[in-house]
């Protein structure tokens, strides 16, 4: 009878350890997916003046033409990632 209790205890302990391992693995995988999808940062490309293509495949129109979009918007309204505006090199050259 005592050996049965010991056996059950070992099986339960093994399940807890294995469950913990799975939990950590899933957490790391979610973190990896979030980084890949840009949840910790959303790159915005300015396609036309004041029209941005967001890193999460949306389009954003900056109606406030008196200030740059990042002056009043820090986080992407679609994916909540931090906004990074990527300056288009060809457009910058054209403007000068
Ligand atoms: Zn976004």
Walk me through what this model shows.
The structure is a single chain. The chain is an alpha+beta fold. Helices cover 49% and strands 18% of the residues. The protein folds into 2 domains: 1-37; 41-95, no CATH class. The structure holds zinc ion. Zinc ion (ZN) binds at residues 42, 54-56, 76, 78-79, 81. Zinc ion binds next to loops.
Q: How would the blueprint of this fold be written?
A:
Elements: H1 2-37, E1 42-48, E2 51-53, E3 59-61, H2 69-72, E4 83-86, H3 89-95
Parallel strand pairs: 1-4
Antiparallel strand pairs: 1-2, 2-3
This protein binds zinc ion.
Zinc ion (ZN) is lined by residues 42, 54-56, 76, 78-79, 81.
List descriptors:
2 domains, 96 residues, four-stranded mixed sheet, rod-shaped, 4 strands, binds zinc ion, single chain, alpha+beta
Give the helix proportion (percent range): 40-55%
Assess the beta-strand content as a share of residues: 15-25%
Could you say how many structural domains there are in total?
Answer: 2
How far is it from the N-terminal to the C-terminal residue, by CA?
86 Å
Structural class: alpha+beta
Q: State the order of secondary-structure elements, H for helix, E for strand.
A: HEEEHEH
> Tell me, what's the shape?
rod-shaped
Largest sheet: 4 strands, mixed
Extended strand count: 4
Small molecules bound in the structure, each named once:
zinc ion
Strand order of the largest sheet: 3-2-1-4
SS field, number of helical segments: 3
Unreliable stretches covering 5 or more consecutive residues: none
What is the radius of gyration computed over CA atoms, rounded to a whole number of angstroms? 24 Å
Mean pLDDT: 85
């Amino acid at each position: 009878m005592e050996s049965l209790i010991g056996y059950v205890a070992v099986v339960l302990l093994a399940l807890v350890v294995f469950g913990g391992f799975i939990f950590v693995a899933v957490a790391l995988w979610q973190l990896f997916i979030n980084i890949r999808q840009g949840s910790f940062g959303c790159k915005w490309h300015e396609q036309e003046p004041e029209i941005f293509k967001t890193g999460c495949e949306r389009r954003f129109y900056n109606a406030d033409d008196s200030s740059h979009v990042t002056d009043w918007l820090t986080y992407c309204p679609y994916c909540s990632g931090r906004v990074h505006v990527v300056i288009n090199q060809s457009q910058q050259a054209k403007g000068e």
